[in-house]
């Protein structure tokens, strides 16, 4: 006879555990301490086996009976309910371990193995591990768009619109990685397109007036800061590259005899190697600073160690100490200065773009330009260095 709710609830403990049968192999075990557990006996391949369905009253009579019927369906299909229960538990544990943080870590390792720049890797790690930390322990399959939007809006409200936009894209990359590795079925960032405020784009602060730029050059000459910083600023202006490429420059990249600096692809933003013709003035800067980096690989090491490059803010901080505000000039803005002045003076725009390592969208034209403009670039870089000397004298 099936058990009633009253009979189960009123079952008292005895000196020894005992059973109350419900039918179909299901019964309730009453322990001497008063605990009550659902059990089910069944036979599989001729052997008697036992299945646990949980503790009463956490599992009610109705729930226990439903579990009994599920077990019977598995038996009718030739499956052992105990084996299936263990499998389900393993699947649940595996899913629980596939958190956003775990998958994000694997994604970071993948882009690292694929040759992403160190700066890109660090930026991605910061976005996923720090900014997106509220998602870290969530099973990736359970994350919904609203959760991601809450994280993005928190960043947006802090005034970092561009960071919020990048974070959405980076989180989306993690989900696409999870999809191809069979740990997610969709990308919940897709419905969030258009949900964020448009970033407020601000151009790189730069001095484009030749007279004012001459004053800046004179100020750099007179600056009494660390020699490596002074040399790095001068070299940055002379070579028209990005600050990170100067800060990370190593001695083996330079062929002094041929006056060429060969920057490998992994240190370039566009992931393409770039050769820089060195003017006489650029070679002079290298000659002045070369001995200071003896014993290390870096050409422009930090103050604290020859094995560490100048910090990201070292050049801009020096400009501030010279009296130039962040709204007037930045180290990255030197490229804007060079492009503006050279274009204004009528130099060939294609050669200027090649000097700046800007990538032509046309692959054939890009390969042609790289090969054909070398001599023009050598000439232009020397003319640029000579112009800087003129500006310096006028400033």
What is the CATH architecture annotation of the largest domain? Answer: Orthogonal Bundle
Fraction of helical residues: 40-55%
Would you list the SSEs in sequence order as H and E? HEEEEHHHHHHHHHEEEHHHHHH
Strand order of the largest sheet: 1-2-3-4
Report the radius of gyration as a whole number of Å.
34 Å
Task: Kindly give the count of domains.
Answer: 3
Outline:
rod-shaped
Residue share in β-strands: 5-15%
Tally of helical runs = 16
Mean pLDDT: 87
The CATH superfamily label of the largest domain reads Intergrase catalytic core
The SS-based structural class is alpha+beta
Terminus-to-terminus distance: 105 Å
Instruction: Give the uncertain stretches in residue-range form.
Output: 361-368
Question: TL;DR?
Answer:
This protein is an alpha+beta fold and 395 residues long. 50% of the residues lie in helices and 10% in strands. Strand 2 and strand 3 form a beta hairpin.
Structure description:
By secondary structure, the protein is an alpha+beta fold. It has three domains: 5-86, 2-Layer Sandwich (Double Stranded RNA Binding Domain), CATH 3.30.160; 100-192, Tyrosine recombinase, N-terminal domain (DNA polymerase, domain 1), CATH 1.10.150; 210-394, Intergrase catalytic core (hpI Integrase, Chain A). Helix content is 50%, strand content 10%. The chain contains 16 helices and seven strands. The chain has helices at 5-10, 61-76, 81-97, 100-113, 118-131, 145-157, 161-180, 210-222, 227-239, 243-247, 280-290, 314-321, 334-344, 349-355, 363-372, 374-394; strands at 18-23, 26-30, 36-44, 47-56, 254-255, 260-263, 274-277. The chain has a four-stranded antiparallel beta sheet with strand order 1-2-3-4, covered by helices on one side. The protein has a three-stranded antiparallel beta sheet with strand order 5-6-7. Helix 5 packs across helix 7. It starts with a helix and ends with a helix. 28% of the residues are buried. The model is unreliable at 361-368 (pLDDT under 50).
């Amino acid at each position: 006879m099936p058990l009633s709710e009253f009979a189960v609830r009123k079952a008292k403990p005895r000196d020894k555990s005992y059973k109350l049968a419900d039918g179909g192999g299901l019964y309730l075990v009453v322990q001497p301490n008063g605990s009550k557990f659902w059990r089910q006996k069944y036979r599989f391949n001729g052997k008697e086996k036992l299945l646990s369905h949980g503790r009463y009253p956490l599992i009610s009579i109705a729930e226990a009976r439903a579990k009994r019927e599920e077990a019977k369906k598995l038996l009718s299909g030739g499956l052992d309910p105990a084996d299936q229960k263990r499998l389900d538990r393993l699947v649940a544990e595996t899913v629980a371990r596939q958190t956003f943080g775990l998958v994000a870590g694997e994604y970071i390792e993948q882009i690292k193995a694929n040759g992403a720049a160190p700066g890109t890797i660090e930026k991605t790690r910061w976005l996923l591990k720090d900014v997106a930390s509220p998602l870290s322990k969530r099973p990736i399959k359970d994350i919904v768009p609203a959760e991601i939007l809450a994280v993005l809006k928190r960043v947006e409200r802090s005034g970092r619109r561009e960071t919020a936009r990048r974070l959405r894209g980076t989180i989306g990359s993690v989900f696409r990685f999870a999809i191809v590795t069979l740990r997610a079925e969709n990308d919940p960032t897709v419905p969030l397109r258009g949900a964020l405020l448009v970033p407020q784009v601000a151009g790189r602060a730069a001095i484009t007036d030749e007279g004012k730029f001459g004053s800046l050059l004179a100020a750099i000459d007179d600056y009494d800061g660390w020699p490596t910083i002074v040399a790095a600023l001068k070299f940055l202006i002379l070579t028209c590259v990005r600050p990170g490429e100067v800060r990370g420059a190593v001695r083996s990249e330079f062929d002094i005899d041929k006056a060429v600096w060969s920057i490998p692809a992994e240190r370039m933003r566009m992931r393409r190697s770039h050769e820089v013709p060195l003017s006489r003035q650029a070679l002079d800067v290298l000659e002045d600073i070369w001995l200071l980096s003896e014993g290390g690989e870096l050409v422009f090491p930090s103050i604290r160690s020859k094995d560490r490059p100048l910090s990201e803010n070292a050049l801009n901080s020096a400009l501030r100490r010279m009296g130039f505000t962040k709204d007037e000039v930045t180290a990255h803005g030197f490229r804007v200065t060079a492009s503006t002045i050279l274009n204004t003076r009528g130099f060939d725009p294609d050669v200027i773009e090649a000097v700046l390592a800007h990538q032509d969208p046309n692959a054939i034209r890009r390969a042609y330009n790289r090969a054909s403009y070398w001599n023009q670039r050598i000439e232009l870089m020397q003319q640029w260095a000579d112009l800087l000397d003129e500006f310096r004298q006028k400033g």
